[in-house]
Amino acid sequence: MLSGISLQNVALFLAVGSLSVAADPADFKRGNTCSFPTNDGLVSITPNEQNGGWAMNTNQQCTSGNYCPYACPSGQLMAQWDTSATSYTYPESQYGGLHCNDDGTVSKPFSNKGYCYDGKGTVKVNNNAGSDVAFCQTVLPGNEAMLIPTNIGSGSTETIAVPGTEYWAQTAAHYYINPPGVSTSDACAWGTSSNTYGNWAPYVAGANMDGSQNTFVKIGWNPVYLSAYSNTKPNFGIRITCDDESKCNGLQCEIDPSNGVNSVNASSSQTGSGSAKYCVVTAEQGSTAKIEVFRV
């Protein structure tokens, strides 16, 4: 059932580890700056920094001649990007969001679309860890830093964004899963290796739907975490569950760090960049999957 997955982009995410390579601000043209749309239902990212709310580096402004990505509410996806950027290649992969015009105004590349739209709704997060958990989605197209926040409250369930084939270059959504108790403001920002959150979160996840409406959900160890904390067991684990297991292929798919760092309990585990282990579950058309977060 794993053939035909748009798992090439999930695999690419794993193959390079964490594709959170922030663009050098010098790569962007200087000129007029464009303000973040504050009254359009978007999620503002560090509004008091130079990025001013855009889903960009904190020290990076939205300047004329460039595309400026933004964050959408949980479960939704950005609907705007450079219409000529159609493949997952650099620098085209940076050209997400609204276009900043020479006069300091912004325009939609797709004038007939809104800013955000609902994802497929086929993956939820169930938080049984006893504290809030931050899922941080990477900005793609954009700088691929983990800036888009979803807070899953203790004991609650939230829908995360799952793109279909209509999304940019048919790419998947990628998430960093942070330790319970770390806020989205701390976790969904570029940090340092001194903390096991953000780019150094223990686990990553990916999700997308193919043309046959099968949803593919991946959970795995973050290779960046493994390189910095190979001897440190996280205090929480994750697993994929399905309400109707008969419609899910790839179960069991679980990471329980009690079994050791980089261990995966799975019917079929795989290895990505940095020898990081992961597993994938396919939820068939009409079914949903959950990523459960639990304490160990």
TrEMBL record:
Keywords of this entry: Signal
Domain of life from the UniProt record: Eukaryota
Signal sequence segment: 1-23
Family: Belongs to the SUN family.
Name of the protein this chain belongs to: SUN-domain-containing protein
Organism: Pachysolen tannophilus NRRL Y-2460
